Amino acid sequence: MNVYVNKYKKLRYNLFKKRCQLCFAYKLALAFSFACLTGLLAQLRFYLPWTPVPITGQVFAVLLTGVLLGRWGGISQTMYIGFGAIGMPWFAGLNGGLAYLTGPTGGYILGFAAAAFFLGYLTDRYVKSRVFANMLALMFFATFVLIYIPGLLYLYIWTGNSVSLWELLTIGMLPYIAGDLLKISAAATIAAAVTPKQAYNGEVDAKNGERDEGKTP
Q1: DSSP, res 43
Q2: Class of 9-194 per CATH?
Q3: CA angle, corner 67, sides to 117 and 77, nearest 5?
Q4: Residue 122: partners with Cβ closer than 8 Å, 6 or more residues away
Q5: Percent of the chain with pLDDT over 90
Q6: Where on the phi/psi map is residue 160: left (φ > 0), alpha (ψ -120 to 50), or beta?
Q7: Alpha-carbon Rg for the chain in angstroms
Q8: Residue 102 half-sphere exposure, CB side, CA atoms within 13 Å?
């Protein structure tokens, strides 16, 4: 059993090390592929009768994008937003165009890039961020602060500043908490399992001998 565990640890280390060493074109292609994944999961949508904000699978994709692509995760989500703004039909409901970003979900979508940049930066920079408990906390912050706050602020503007705080939370946050907690838990579990617990790119909290590690973990 230990042989297989060690092989798995070696594989995930090598994959992340290789990701850091990819040339610009390959990193760009990888970022675009994860933008496509976000667009695909955006089509898993369900509308509640009292809110214009749908339940989708986007948050799950955003969280994993940040962890798996590191700093390029934010670029991936920026591509998702940018290409969608110029007409790529991969927002929820196969929508695209700048008009969609000015709709009720525009703030949440803009928050995707901030959340992915945040997660990518920290998981690439700190080995300790990749354990489950820390990953869960980081994803919780990314979701409920970096995505929800701009989402709620813009939703309030979209309503014409005509709703109370409770009404805003009712249409823009409260119905989604349970689902997002499930997405966060699933994403954190996957991320903690697939990310190496050794330094692969000169992390600042690397142990002695790990900072420029080329050995097999």
Answers
A1: T
A2: mainly alpha
A3: 45
A4: 129, 138
A5: 89
A6: left
A7: 18
A8: 5
**Domain boundaries of the chain, sorted by first residue:** 9-194
Q: What is the pLDDT of residues 69-125, one digit of tens each?
A: 999 999 999 999 999 999 999 999 999 999 999 999 999 999 999 999 999 999 999
**Alpha helices, H only, the chain:** 2-21, 24-42, 58-69, 72-85, 98-101, 106-125, 132-141, 148-158, 165-172, 177-194
The SS3 call for residue 17 is helix
Whole-number pLDDT of residue 212:
46
Q: Are 73 and 123 in contact (CB under 8 A)?
A: no
34 close to 76: Cβ distance less than 8 angstroms: yes
At 130 the three-state DSSP class reads helix
Q: In the structure encoding, which two tokens stand for residue 94, read together?
A: 């196969």
Longest dimension (CA), the chain: 62
Distances (CA, A) of 216 to 69, 85, 205: 21, 43, 19
Checking if the pLDDT of 23 tops 70, the result is yes
pTM of the model: 0.91
